[in-house]
Amino acid sequence: MAFEKQRQRLAGVVAIPVTPFTAAGDVDAETYERLVERLVLSGVEVVTPNGNTGEFYALDEQETRQCLEATTKAAREASVLAGVGHDVRTAVKAAKHARASGADMAMIHQPVHPYVSRAGWIDYHRAIANEVPELGVVLYVRNPAIEGSDLAQLADAAPNVLGVKYAVPDPVRFRTVARDAGHERFVWIAGLAELSAPGYFAVGATGFTSGLVNVAPQISLDLFRRLRNHDFAGAMEIWDRIRPFEQMRAAEGNANNVSVVKDALSQLGLCRPDVRPPSRLLTTAERDQLFEILSSWGLS
User: Fold this and answer.
1) Residue 124 among the catalytic residues
2) Residue tagged active-site, from 73, 93, 115, 165
């Protein structure tokens, strides 16, 4: 099967690293490399530069290139799943740069457009995937209107589409789409991180994306191992431990999704807590709450 190594790795913890900034507000490439190296040395096999936890939409083109290059430099033998998006030409340009820099996969971000037709959604992804046939392509699906038949039609037109990061908060819908697309045709990744992973694994997911893995890699990897081994009771024990952290990230419509991860890394002395608007820094009370969570994990 084409892209067999990439398929195997996507059935695991897909890390979305943060993008650290310097005091001047620039991308801190040196710190970025250290964070990626920490992930892969912990056992993570897929790293996604320029994902949403990496503040993709707050970075300019040159900065996304910096993040991609820092990742490929530090990833060692791990797979690099480069986040690309915006208009078709911009996404293709980014995907070609990723390929030239050593990435072996690209994740196409959900189209940010007020008018998305299903046929246009297929055309958008096909146009990008066909320009980089050497890269495995992962779709980022957040739109509940996308049907399994749409995914199957896209895969017919672009054989390098191999994975689906499904981020619609509905396990029943997920299973329906996966069944209609052909469950064995794609690697199905639970795209809403650790709290949703058990429910999605129960209906067919084999991997999940994670921002928490930046902070506590072994917790995320342990959760994955338990889910892979169908140890749902053990998985839910971990779920209970991480729930306060993930709920802090999800508060106010995910407003602090990135801020919580970066502040946790800051409390561990690994990077600055700075985020770019429209994200915000945590309040003192929130930082204290986060400190208590990290302490309960034995990390602070």
Assistant:
1) no
2) 165
